[in-house]
Design goal:
This protein is 37% helix and 24% strand. It is of the alpha/beta class. The protein folds into two domains: 171 residues, P-loop containing nucleotide triphosphate hydrolases (Rossmann fold, 3-Layer(aba) Sandwich), CATH 3.40.50; 65 residues, no CATH class. A six-stranded mixed β-sheet has the order 6-7-8-3-9-10, with helices on both faces. A four-stranded antiparallel β-sheet has the order 2-1-4-5. A hairpin with a 2-residue loop joins β4 and β5. The longest helix has 16 residues. It starts with 5 loop residues before the first strand and ends with a helix. 39% of the residues are buried. Bound molecules: adenosine-5'-triphosphate. The site of adenosine-5'-triphosphate has 11 residues, from β2 and α1. Keywords: Antibiotic resistance, ATP-binding, Nucleotide-binding, Transport. This is ABC transporter ATP-binding protein. Its main location: membrane. It is a peripheral membrane protein.
Length: 252
């Protein structure tokens, strides 16, 4: 079997007496567009944070292109482009300064870093905000500059925590097109999202996370099993769907 680009094996994480991630294993095939879905608090962000080396697991291993994220972090992270949840950015820089600075930190030559920054700002429609400090960016602009930062060094695997959250529809189309191109040139994308339609349109593989465990994972069509992803998700997490319920004071 081909070595997966991302291999998560028996990952566990507890916060106090709460088990956030409970023995999660996933194989993300090279060239796949992999979606992670699940209800609020299911453990998606915790899993992705451990997968990219931002949060130390209690147990389990993660390999990126065969490199252990925790034993060989520098090599593993050079392959990774990450858009984390609640990304902390240097706030007192403009978008261009931020990208150029990060590019230099990642070892790009000044001219290469500046050229890539310009290109990414233009593609993501942030060039107009060139003189705006990141602290004054809107939520969607922060998401886009975070995505640009994830792409800057030319990673082979992108791990994106809710990349479309708060992004306007036009920018979302741009980001989708860019991610599809990234896949077309041999990249791999893992993203989490609550928008089932987006996951169904973009992803060829999907994992449903529920209460810290994988409820289902595999090719999209196999996981959907003839239903929509939304229907499967509701079924897999056993949601008590009573759509007639409302607070009594609202309906009286
Ligand atoms: N730093 C933390 N300290 C304590 N508990 C945490 C921490 N981070 C996450 N948790 C808990 O771990 C569980 C999983 O959270 P996580 O953020 O991974 O879920 P999620 O699937 O990403 O949720 P959402 O879709 O709402 O973003 C939740 O019960 C959450 O309260």
């Amino acid at each position: 079997m081909q070595t997966p680009v991302l291999e998560i094996v028996n990952l566990c994480k507890r916060f106090g007496d709460r088990t956030a991630v409970d023995d999660v294993s996933l194989r993300v095939p090279a060239g796949s567009f992999f979606g992670l879905v699940g209800p609020n608090g299911a453990g998606k962000t915790t899993t992705l944070s451990m997968a990219v080396g931002l949060l130390r697991p209690d147990s389990g291993t993660v390999r990126v292109e065969g490199l252990d994220v925790w034993a060989d972090p520098v090599a593993a992270r050079s392959r990774l482009g990450v858009l984390p949840d609640g990304l902390a950015l240097p706030e007192r820089l403009t978008g261009r300064e931020l990208l150029t600075y990060l590019g230099r930190l990642r070892g790009l030559a000044p001219r290469v870093a500046a050229g890539r920054a310009d290109e990414l700002l233009a593609i993501l429609d942030l060039a107009g905000a060139d003189r705006t400090l990141v602290i004054d960016y809107s939520t969607g602009m922060r998401k886009k500059i975070g995505l640009a930062a994830a792409l800057l060094h030319g990673p082979s695997l992108l791990v994106l925590d809710e990349p479309f959250e708060a992004v306007d529809p036009v920018s979302a189309l741009t980001i989708r097109a860019m991610l599809r191109q990234f896949i077309a040139i041999g990249g791999t994308v893992v993203l989490s999202s609550h928008v089932m339609a987006t996951v169904e349109q973009l992803c060829d593989h999907v994992a449903v996370v529920h209460r810290g465990r994988i409820a289902a994972a595999g090719p999209l069509d196999r996981v959907r099993a003839g239903a929509t992803l939304e229907e499967r998700l509701v079924e897999l997490v056993g949601a008590d769907l009573d759509l007639t319920r409302s607070p009594s004071w609202l309906v009286s």
